[in-house]
Amino acid sequence: MQVLVTGGAGYIGSHTILELLRAELDVIAVDNLSNSKEVALQRVAQISGRSFACHNIDLRDGAALNMVFEEYDIEAVIHLAGLKVVDESIQQPLDYYDNNLMSTLRLCEVMAYHDVKKLLFSSSAMVYGEPQSVPISEDSPRDATSPYGMTKIIIEDILADLYAADKTWEISLLRYFNPAGADKSGLIGEDPKGVLSSLLPYVSQVAIGNLPRLCVFGNDYPTKDGTGIRDYVHVSDLAEAHLAALYASEPGVEVYNLGTGKGYSVLQVIEAFSNASARPVPYNIAKRRSGDVPASYADTTKAKTKLGWRATRGLAEICEDTWRWQSQNPNGYEVYSVKVNKNIQA
Ligand code: NAD
Ligand code: WQD
After folding, report:
1. What's the CA-to-centroid distance between 254 and ligand 2, angstroms?
2. Which of 96, 128, 148, 297 is catalytic?
C-alpha cells in the first residue's frame, strides 16, 4: 500500500513513517518544513534501512499537491500537517485558521479528484476542552478553549460533512492525548522550534542542563498532589495506532481516543524522568497556566475493541527513550536542512 503522510518530517510524522516502513508499506512524505528539518527523514531511512519519497511543499499549494498525486498511486493519506501550539494559536489565530483549515480543504479536494478516500486525521484531546469527567470517552462533549482546538473541531466537522456527501470516504479521526517519548534508536525525537511548551521536552532540557529549572504550573489543582494530570502516550505506540487504523479503515467516520488510559501528575513525571536520567530536575511552583485543565486521560475502550490497539509502553519507557534522544542529541537535529524534493535514501 502507498501511503501519503502529510507533516511527515514532524515529531509524530517521522515516528509514524518509521512504523509504516517497518510494516513494509511504501511512503510518500509531504512537508513544508515550517516546524521540522529534513534530517529527521534521513534518520528514519537510516533506522528502517528503507528509502522513501519526500516532497517539500505546502499543502495549501493545490497544484503542487496535485502533482504528487499524479506521480504516485496513493491509496491512503495520514494527515498530520498542522500548526499545534495552543498559546501561539491565541496570539496568531489567523495563521492557525489559514494553515490548518486551508491545507485540509486543498488536501481533501485533491484526494477526491484522484478518488483517494482513505484518510486518517490527527485530531487532539484538546477538542474536549475542560472534560466534565475522566476518563474521557469519544462521545464526551467537545468544547474548544483555543483557536488551535477550534481548528481541530472544525476539521472534524468538515470531514463528517464530506462523508455525508459521499459515502465512499473512509475517515478516522484520531484524538491524540499527550504524545511523548522517542524511538528506541535515539536518532529521532521531539525537536520543538521556538518556545518550549509541553512538559516532557521541557523536563528533558532541564535534566540535560540547557535550562536551569522547570516551572510547575500550579500545585493547587484538585488532584492527588495538586499538579496537573495528563495521559502521556509513547509516540511509538501512537505510530503503531496509525497502522491499526489503516487496516481497520472502512466507509464512514470513526473517532478514536489514542491514549494509555492512565494519568500522571507533573510531579510524578519529574520523579520518573529523574529516575530514568539519573539527573536532578530542579523545579519551582509557579501560578497556573491559563487554559490548563486539572486532569485529562483517555477511556481507551474503543481503540482496544475496534482497532485491536492499546499502548504498551509506560511512563518509565517514555522517560528512558526521551532521555536517550536528548542525551544523544543535546541540541535536537541542529543540522539545518536545504529545502529540496528528493528521494530519502536509506
Ligand atoms: P510537528 O510540528 O512536529 O509536525 C507537524 C508537521 O507539519 C511539521 O513538520 C510542519 O513542518 C508540517 N506542516 C505544518 N503546516 C504545513 C503545511 N501547510 N504544509 C505542509 N506541511 C506543514 O507536530 P506533531 O507534534 O508531530 O503533531 C502532528 C499532528 O498531531 C498535528 O496536526 C498536531 O495538531 C497533532 N497533535 C499533536 C499533539 C502533540 O502534543 N504533539 C497532540 C495532539 C495532536
Ligand atoms: C502537561 C502538564 C501543565 C509545561 C499539550 C500541548 C498542546 C496540545 C495538547 C496538541 C500540564 C504542566 C507543562 C511546563 C508544567 N498539543 N506543565 N510546566 O497541557 O495537555 O497540552 O497537548 O494538540 O499544544 O501543550 O500538555 O505538556 O503542555 O502540559 O507544569 O513547563 O504539565 O500545566 O499540567 P497539555 P503540556
Report:
1. 26
2. 148
User: Would you say 80 and 10 are in contact if contact means Cβ atoms under 8 Å apart?
Assistant: yes
Instruction: Give the rounded percent of residues in the chain with a pLDDT score beyond 70.
Output: 97
User: Could you tell me how many helices (H) and strands (E) the chain has, helices first?
Assistant: 12, 15
Reported as half-sphere exposure (CB side, CA atoms, 13 A), residue 245 has a value of 35
Cα(73) to centroid(ligand 1), Å:
24
Of 208-212, 240-244, 314-318, the range with the lowest mean pLDDT is: 208-212
Give the Å distance between the CA of 137 and the centre of ligand 2. Answer: 20
Is residue 30 over pLDDT 50? yes
- Kindly tell me if the per-residue pLDDT of 336 is higher than 70: no
Q: CA-CA distances (angstroms) from residue 285 to 162, 196, 215, 219, 220? A: 46, 18, 6, 7, 10
- CB of 60 closer than 8 Å to CB of 103: yes
Q: All domains of the chain, ordered by start, with CATH? A: 2-344 (3.40.50.720)
pLDDT tens by residue, 308-333: 999 999 999 999 999 999 999 998 99
Those residues with Cβ within 8 angstroms of residue 209's Cβ, 6 or more apart along the chain or in another chain: none
CB 8 within 8 A of CB 27: yes
* Residue 232, ligand 1, Cβ within 6 A: no
81 CB near ligand 1 (under 6 Å): yes
- Identify the residue with better confidence: 292 or 341: 292
Widest distance between CA atoms in the chain? 56
Question: Ligand 1 center to residue 81 CA distance, Å?
Answer: 5
124, 142, 148, 199, best to mutate for ligand 2 pocket (most atoms within 8 Å of CB): 199
Is ligand 1 within 6 A of the CB of residue 254? no
Q: How high is the pLDDT of residue 195?
A: 67
pTM of the predicted protein model: 0.97
Q: Is 148 a catalytic site residue?
A: yes
Among candidates 237, 181, 180, 173, which has minimal Cα distance to 19? 237
155, HSE (Cβ side, Cα atoms, 13 Å): 36
266 Cβ inside 6 Å of ligand 2:
yes
Whether the CB of 253 sits within 6 Å of ligand 2:
no
